[in-house]
Amino acid sequence: LLFATGIAYGTIASGTLPVLWGFLIALFVASGTAILLDLDDQSIRRGLFGFNAALVGTALPTYLQWNGILAGYIALAAIVSVIVTLALTRFLGTWEVAPLTAPFVITSWFATQASYGLALLSGTSLLGPPRLPLGAPLALAGLTPDTFFQGLFRGISQVYFINNPFTGFIFLVALLVNSRISGSMAILGSLVGLFTGLAFGAPGATVLQNGLYGYNSVLGAIAILTFFPLAWKSVAIAAFEAIAAAVAWAALDNFLAPPGIPVFTSAFVITTWALLLARKDLRPLPSARLAQTLLGTHQQGDAERR
Amino acid sequence: LLFATGIAYGTIASGTLPVLWGFLIALFVASGTAILLDLDDQSIRRGLFGFNAALVGTALPTYLQWNGILAGYIALAAIVSVIVTLALTRFLGTWEVAPLTAPFVITSWFATQASYGLALLSGTSLLGPPRLPLGAPLALAGLTPDTFFQGLFRGISQVYFINNPFTGFIFLVALLVNSRISGSMAILGSLVGLFTGLAFGAPGATVLQNGLYGYNSVLGAIAILTFFPLAWKSVAIAAFEAIAAAVAWAALDNFLAPPGIPVFTSAFVITTWALLLARKDLRPLPSARLAQTLLGTHQQGDAERR
Amino acid sequence: LLFATGIAYGTIASGTLPVLWGFLIALFVASGTAILLDLDDQSIRRGLFGFNAALVGTALPTYLQWNGILAGYIALAAIVSVIVTLALTRFLGTWEVAPLTAPFVITSWFATQASYGLALLSGTSLLGPPRLPLGAPLALAGLTPDTFFQGLFRGISQVYFINNPFTGFIFLVALLVNSRISGSMAILGSLVGLFTGLAFGAPGATVLQNGLYGYNSVLGAIAILTFFPLAWKSVAIAAFEAIAAAVAWAALDNFLAPPGIPVFTSAFVITTWALLLARKDLRPLPSARLAQTLLGTHQQGDAERR
């Protein structure tokens, strides 16, 4: 529900109404599909179906121009995202690894890539154009403290394709209210992603400021503290994940340049899958002291039950 | 055997004799390899080996110019396709999913992609050239009822890389004689694929008319009714698969444009794998009434035994 | 240790000192990471961690220009390679298949691809530039016996990105001293890879002479005799693997041309994985006579214990 309100608010604030329609169509169709299929453990899974479908519904009107055909395309993509969620859950279940946002990424890759061959679905200025990778010029000149703050909060809003520092701030407050851990990890992820880009010479004024080095790291850091026990070692792993996700974004951004499709949250998915697969060997132990700091004494029990 | 006759007939009819040689070389070498390896459950598996190898042998002379070197290359590719079939059978066995035509797709991707670096193997006009994806222009002008009928039957013949509506009609009759279900699904798949392309604005005169939006949907619809029980829910899933395979073709056609290799039947393989992985959650129940309609009362028992 | 000495010697001989620094940084950081993580079966696994990390440390200064930032980038990549090794070991453990050098390939792909977006990390003349695949011209004119001998030994030195026939000869002697089987397989692999390229018309003076058709085949042939029992059938499989790895190199070299990243040893990894997955169906029996020829009567027991 929190995510729903966030997206609704964000899209209205950004004046991009098609994104709201896409979001609602996808959520409605995916829920309908889940009910029609009479899925077994509805209560558990439908959240995941809805979340990935909602992301598809938010992404497609961002990258493709709105028209009646796109509305039908989104409905179709929402059903596909439910099937992909079921398929990936079964595939990854072999290693007890979660699909994360991979159903959204895979469905949206196919949907945006296919649009190049379909005349009734045109890309917006954000899609492509397809190009061969070029070396980035060094652009430290444009870096100001403003770049830094913008990048920090836009890194959080970019999780929902919204390029707006104020929306990022609202999301962060909502996250902190909901869970002190997730909120802290969002700040950690966005900061670490931003500094990783800075350290290796990512273009400041355009890429860093828009939070593109942050959004995968935000998701990655939150996911690590969700799947690993609350411990300092897990925080270190989350920081490492934030670095890896930022570099992976740069790699995937260039790898997907020739076909001309967006990275979406694939950098987060791939790097987090690697850490989840390696989980048993990393095995961090829960830290009571960290739990106290972040959650307070009374909430400690909750944290351990996660 | 039916497929063999179909390909033999089709290639002779099209006057492309190299395709027939390629087909025979691949079938002969793959069978020899299977015997040499003394494969365990020969009777079951050799059909699969032969089928994928035959497709490789049919595809390579279609996309690469015929010469003595290509004959050796096809023999090599046929052995590779047997190994890939064994490897994928073991890999996918974890989820009780069949390799379908993936051994053919993977082997042919490597073989056609490598030809760009090998001077003695040149592509035909059908291979590449490598290019960055471009938006498709809207071309509704060229759409006539003729486009429609051509697309319907060419969609069936394209399963074997044959671009000929009459051959498609022959294949369809052969399929219907062999199995009323497979024949019906071939019509359903080709129709749904064609209309999916039409609905989203695929270029009519060139792409739709040549059945390129149909052949993956034909295979997909037939495969669904092979792996799912005979039920109305399965027919609905087959229709959905036909839509998904058509859009996936458009996506893969553009994704593989920069490296310059063909889609082959990868759109069918990927979308059907997703549905097979999700099979347990989709669980359609057999429908006695549908069985009666399609098979007649006496054949009903056969259908349920599938 | 032998590999370490080989790389140290090779880089000093080639006058490319950054490669030696990269090698040492990666080995040091990966060992430190393995100790910090207190990995369970240290004695067994640390060899694998170190080997893949060392390859990453050798590859990055070969493809990216040396500076202080790159030193930090290599340290980061070394940690990533440890995580990827753990993740792939768990993933592939399902089928009892080893990760081989895939952790190195995957880590180095991400690291080199990301450099296109990072201004402080510039490619050397060996990286890219990104381009669409072009047909290769036939260039038999440049083929001399010298091409042949150069290709044979450079094919062995290229395993460590060193393009030097004398270094290849030293490596071969070291391999033969260490294990007669591995040494023989290195010769077999380099020869078969070279002749495969020759047979299908690979550009002689540039590509074949530099051993690019050999290094994956060398690794593949050695790996087959490591994982399959010592038997004539295994030698035949190793020769087949050498052919497949050479063609796969040509395919991957063109497939990775648009994004502009190197093949590394991916051709070896993919083809060997296919054979390892199919291992049970290939099941060659150990040959006592071959063991005698290659190992002498007294060493036979060792070979069977492998």
How would you characterize this protein structure?
- Three copies of one chain form a homotrimer.
- With 306 residues, the first copy, chain A, is mainly alpha-helical.
- Chain A has 15 helices and no strands.
- Chain A has helices spanning 2-14, 17-36, 42-63, 68-93, 102-114, 145-157, 165-178, 180-199, 204-208, 215-227, 232-255, 266-277, 279-282, 288-295, 300-305.
- Residues 297-306 of chain A have low confidence and may be disordered.
- Chains A and B meet through helix 4 and helix 5 of A and helix 11, helix 12 and helix 13 of B.
Overall 3D geometry of chain A?
Answer: globular
Q: Mean pLDDT of chain A, rounded to whole units?
A: 85
How many helices of chain A in DSSP terms? 15
Q: What's the order of the H and E elements of chain A?
A: HHHHHHHHHHHHHHH
Straight-line distance between termini of chain A? 20 Å
> Helical proportion of chain A?
55-70%
Number of strands of chain A: 0
Task: Name the descriptors.
306 residues, homotrimer, mainly alpha
Summarize the entry for a quick read.
The structure is a homotrimer of 306-residue chains. Chain A is an all-alpha fold and 306 residues long. The first copy, chain A, has 15 helices and no strands.
